[in-house]
Model the fold of this input.
Amino acid sequence: MDTKAAAQVYLTRRQGSRPPAPLLSVIVPVYNEQDVLPHFLEATRPVLERTGLAYEYIFIDDGSRDGTADTLSAQLKDGLPGRLIGLSRNFGKEAALSAGLEAARGDIAVIIDADLQDPPELILQMLDGWRAGYDVVYGLRVDRSSDTLMKRSTAGWFYRLFNRLANIEMPANAGDFRLIDRAVIDALLRLPERNRFMKGLFAWVGFPAMAIPYERPARKAGTGKFNYWKLWNFALDGLTGFTTLPLRVWFYGGVLVSLIAFAYALYLTLRVFVSGVDVPGYASLMVAILFFSGIQLLSIGMIGEYIARLFNEAKQRPVYVIQDIIEGGVQTGERQTEKDADDN
Ligand code: UDP
Ligand code: MG
Done:
């Protein structure tokens, strides 16, 4: 049986074993999003109601300093289904997502940004993909014109470099916006590392995945939280977390340089025999010194990047700290109640 047919067999099997009335967890990391939250709830609730499933919001307040927590706790007290996990400070989106995955009780989870750059209507298509047997259904940004040219091209380079170096395949232009099955959540929760580069972890755990293309709109309200320095460090986390090639490449560089140096030494020695000793050589010495000190600093720096991360992993600190949890209402699926009504 070829791999395609084997994949189809798996999908069909998964299709058959989907729970009829799954609980859907909607994981939303929020950091200073008070302006956009009303829009977010207004846009997502009708879609979630349309799914006919029981659902819960899992908001992770990543140390917001504005009215985000107040807005959400008021909504939850008013009966919004789900929970608000308040972190003790800003731990970053990746840590917030880990907290969300940990808190989710659903058979399925959808990860979505609060700023409506991830269109909520897509959740319906994602559910269809899940019902068809895919364990991961991710949004693929086909149009990033809402991002600057600079952001688009640097992101493009990063995906290309990552996929060339790391031995896992990370789809370019896929964000965190996705639906994942419980099997995938459990797999993600088993990964013990502190460096939570989620896009890489998603790729690492595997499972049959389906892409849904969409156009990424601009932020509805509020401001973006990532600047280029943050993105650069994010990219470094991604690369160092998933490939050791930058560490190992210096060995080959060293071998190559030594071979060249050896050949050059041989040439110099022979030249002394042929044309005697000559003193000039300042330029070539200087070039060689500058070149090799450059390479040495670069490779030591590269090693430093890994050692710093080893240091962080070795400390075994938790990825995030929960300050408080606010429980909201409970929402049972419409479809379920309809069915119950039929039964009576
Ligand atoms: N976010 C977070 N912690 C952070 C930064 C961002 O939880 O330290 C959340 C933010 O509230 C939003 C999502 O992550 O819901 C995406 O953030 P943003 O829109 O700033 O990122 P971008 O769209 O530029 O990727
Ligand atoms: Mg955004």
